UniProtKB/TrEMBL annotation:
InterPro entries: NTF2-like_dom_sf. The keyword Transmembrane does not apply. PROSITE patterns: PROKAR_LIPOPROTEIN. Residues 1-24 form the signal peptide. This is Nuclear transport factor 2 family protein. Keywords: Signal. The keyword Ribonucleoprotein does not apply.
């Protein structure tokens, strides 16, 4: 169980390092970004994960020298996690709510359906840049 917790947290942290039901339109945009990011991580879609990530506060783009490494890392991490997710029947996640304050937002892990984080209490940060939400470093 601890290994599962660490594995999923590691995937989320590495993905970010490498690179809603109701609410306001900003809350909906935040939950959509986070769901897209996490479901792409589950699917091994590194281009989507890396494209929705900030690295040191900057948007990661396909012209970034580390882009290929980011994409490849997501594929490897997703493949490693796949048997655990399949065993638990988790194919996607949804997020119940987000907290938005200006151009920053947070998603609490306990608000994620499809408990890929197994009850961990942690927070994902998002930041809005040029009108688009991106996953920032987890706290």
């Amino acid at each position: 169980m601890i290994k599962k917790l660490l594995t999923v947290s590691t995937i989320a942290a590495l993905a970010l390092g490498l690179a809603g039901c109701s609410g306001t339109s900003e809350e909906d945009a935040v939950t959509q970004t986070a769901e897209t990011f996490m479901n792409a991580m589950i699917a091994g879609d590194g281009e989507t994960v890396c494209g929705l990530s900030l690295r040191e506060g900057e948007v990661v783009t396909s012209s970034d020298p580390d882009w290929a490494g980011c994409v490849e890392s997501i594929a490897i991490l997703s493949e490693a996690l796949a048997p655990q997710l399949e065993a638990e029947g988790i194919t996607e996640v949804t997020i119940d709510k987000a907290t938005v304050t200006g151009d920053t937002a947070t998603i609490k892990l306990e608000d994620i359906n499809g408990d890929i984080f197994h009850g961990q209490t942690s927070v994902f940060a998002l930041r809005k840049i040029d009108g688009k939400w991106y996953m920032d470093s987890p706290s």
